[in-house]
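Late entry, evening session. Most of the bench is empty. Finally got around to the prediction I had been postponing all week. Sequence below, unchanged from the version circulated by S.P.
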Amino acid sequence: VTPLRILHVDTGRTWRGGQAQVDLLVGGLAARGHGQLVAAPAGPLAERLAARGVAVVRFAPHGDLDWPAGLVLAARARAFAPDVVHLHDARAHALGWFAARATGAACVVSRRVAFGATVRLPHAFKYTRLPIDRFLALSGPVRDELVALGVPAERIELVPDAVDVAAVGRAVVAARADGSAATRRAATGAGAGAFVVGTIAAFTREKGQDVLLAAAGRSAARPHVILHGAGPEEATLRAFATRAPRPVGVAFVSDDEPFVTLAALDVLVVPSRAEGLGSIALVAQAAGVPVIAAAIGGLPEIVHDGRTGLLVPPGDPEALAAALDRVHAEPAAARARAEAARAAVVAYDVATITARTESAYAAARAGRAALPPRLR
């Protein structure tokens, strides 16, 4: 493949799934010989990329209508002369398309979440009127929402999240070998032979940590719980964890070592009320950790009920408690599902997903080249 010059734009100021995916993609594209520039706010993503020698420029707009920031980005883009501008989140989409238009580059937008497609007019305008060449939908439900908004299906590529399978495996083995996983289990009050379950997600209502706490309090398995993350719902969750029925032990973790938490868990739970895909489930599968997930959004695309994990109705603590009890009572079956998941997750390895993204770039460029000159 002929090397491309790619401008990535991401406006996330914290470290969440979207930023982790940009990090993986930039690394995957660098390995394939592409030149890249990343526009992002000062924060974890910019720091990680700069530490690896990736060129990073500051882009921190104050809202979707911060046109001065958009004009500065367009000037940066003209200096870089990209072949592709990849806009990785909603605010990047709102402002970053102008950078592509100013340089004649192909414009690609990633959409990570399923939303109320017909609720807000700005969504319809942004998705159907701005000159976007390709949309990358994280899952089938996200693709369906884009179509419902009026985006032509032929301009949508289904490109799921990636996972660095080998790196996850190494990190989990290391966390178990150096004792950090055992220390994390002990933080919940768990002794030898205890059943430890948990989540790794931002503390927001849609992530459903309260559903897990309610389920753990009802479970006959009496699980200890690790909640790994940070966010606006933390105080609410801490209060929820003290109510009856409550788990026997809860540990709140806010560090940047998710692999230590994965290594400490007997089950990773994804109890989301809404989810574009749920990439943490892929990470758990790569680590060989059993997964229970809500049957919402794109999660059923990566967790196949009874084969690679268990699915439960979203927002249903009783059903989740029953699934926890099932895993606890049938450890051999849980291990078998986890092994099947580890075999299947190679389809989401970073090299494979990077190649799919690269193909989407090629399609976007071909579509732009086919336009009349006045529309390019």
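Two things to note before I forget:
The chain has a mean pLDDT of 94.
The first helix runs from residue 17 to 31.
Will write this up properly tomorrow.
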